[in-house]
Amino acid sequence: MQEQDSTQRNLYISHLNKCLKNIHQVLTKANDILSSISQPSVCSEVLLSPEGANYISGVVEVYRVSKRIEGGMTAFNIVSESLQPVLKDIDLSWNNLQAFLSMSPCVLHRLPSQSALDYKVEGFLSDSTHCVKRCCGVCLLERPEEGQLLSDPAHSMLIYESHLYHTSCANFWMHCVDSSLPVLPCHNCRYCLKLNQVEI
After folding, report:
1. Which DSSP state fits 135?
2. 94-111 burial string, b = 16+ CB within 10 Å, else e?
3. What is the pLDDT of residues 82-125, one digit of tens each?
4. Rounded distance, CA 85 to CA 198, Å?
């Protein structure tokens, strides 16, 4: 059983590493695009255009996925030396991006606050040991309570082939990682063990 747990944990770490590296690439590309604009006035004009606003909105959602992943790592108690440097790189890229966005204060003010992106303190369901089948298949963050879904559309989740995904997590995965949504196994938690007993 311990060996199976270790294999499953390594699979989760590999999955999260793939997610985080692609998130870092998206943020790096955004930084490269904005740093190539030499004049602040032109940068501000680009950011205020409908296309620029949509682009930045998409980049924000990608960064949101990284913060959800941090929440999922906390929920599953995943600590990995291979993931920490990528998380630091992502935060560094995000801070650099915010420096460029400061050229257009009205765009900067539209960004979500850090507290709104802290998914480690949300009140997610915890009536059993964390089960990946009850979580987003990309970020591993558990399905929120109904009240949170109503108060914040960013929490919205979809079901695809009996698996849960945040809408923005699924979009990120399919556009930046792979055309097929990931399906991670879970057989060891109380929820799955109970299900398996019923099926037997």
Report:
1. B
2. bebbeebbebbeebeeeb
3. 999 999 999 999 999 998 888 777 777 888 888 888 886 544 44
4. 42
